[in-house]
Design goal:
With about 140 residues, the chain is mostly beta strands. It is built from 1 helix and 9 strands. The chain has one domain: Sandwich (Immunoglobulin-like), CATH 2.60.40. Strands 2, 4, 5, 6, 8 and 9 form a 6-stranded mixed sheet that branches.
């Protein structure tokens, strides 16, 4: 009984830590988000392809999950970074993977495109500091 009370108290403390304070959720300074595939400079045949997303020193969790140092992926296509203090837009240039996906099949028309990853917190707001990948360029044939 005592063991379960201690575990319950720890769980409450973790969940409360995730809601403490306003503004962007904190992130460890060593967190990194990156593309596993495609690579920078990759030439892709056909418009549909898999994007595989990686994350170091944080956890992936679905939107609405209130656990510190977790977030979910957003792929930015042919656009710059959005506001770092507001929810990431949800449109054809800002793809949300709020179910906690780490890979997804996307479709792009032929041409040259830029891709960048941005991690969002439970409310789709970038962390502080923001967890952003290098912008890569791909060509779809």
């Amino acid at each position: 009984m005592r063991h379960s009370l201690v575990l319950s108290a720890l769980l409450v403390a973790v969940l409360q830590a995730g809601t403490a304070g306003a503004g962007p959720a904190p992130a460890p300074p060593n967190a990194q988000v990156y593309f596993i595939w495609p690579y920078d400079g990759q030439v892709i045949s056909g418009g549909k392809f898999w994007v595989r997303m990686g994350l170091r020193n944080m956890g992936v969790a679905p939107k609405g999950t209130n656990v510190p140092h977790t977030g979910h992926h957003h792929v930015l296509i042919n656009t710059g970074l959005p506001s770092m203090t507001e929810p990431i837009p949800n449109d054809r240039n800002h793809l949300h993977f709020g179910a906690g996906e780490t890979e997804a099949r996307i479709e792009l028309p032929p041409g040259t495109h830029t891709l960048q990853l941005l991690l969002g917190d439970k409310d789709h707001v970038p962390h502080n500091p923001p967890i952003v990948s290098k912008k890569i360029t791909i060509t779809v044939r």
